[in-house]
User: What shape does this take?
Amino acid sequence: MTPSIEGLVQTSNNVARILVKDGSFTVQCLTRSSVNSEKTDLADAIKSTFELCGATLTYSGAYPGWEPKPDAPIVKLMSELYKELYKENANVDAIHAGLECGILGTNYPGMQMISFGPNIYGAHSPDEKAQISSVQKFWGYLLETLKRIPEKN
Assistant: This one.
């Protein structure tokens, strides 16, 4: 669990698929964490367990984690702007999921980041859909945010 955010998973493993065919087996897992060293440690522990029974293991498809920073200035700026524009508090939350922010943060380690967008239902499923009426709202919110980002000296 994430020590700084109550109830937020920090590191996990999901046994995504098991295939048994012709006397051999394949186990596919999704190991993820907002702390990359913890993800590596968990993946290595899983690897060691399978190696004890003579299995071979390969890693593929990894992506970096992204540690939430709820006190970052960008979170404050966008929360205040949301309240100004929509007359209600923004729903600021952290989730245990893979986000592009992990990839961006690896390449731009000092960049403040926030993930936001329109209402999405049934994500990553055949039923995935976006609430069209929320797309325009978040487009306007993005444009207004960009106007208020302070320039670096």
Q: What stands out?
A: The chain has two domains: 1-62, 73-148.
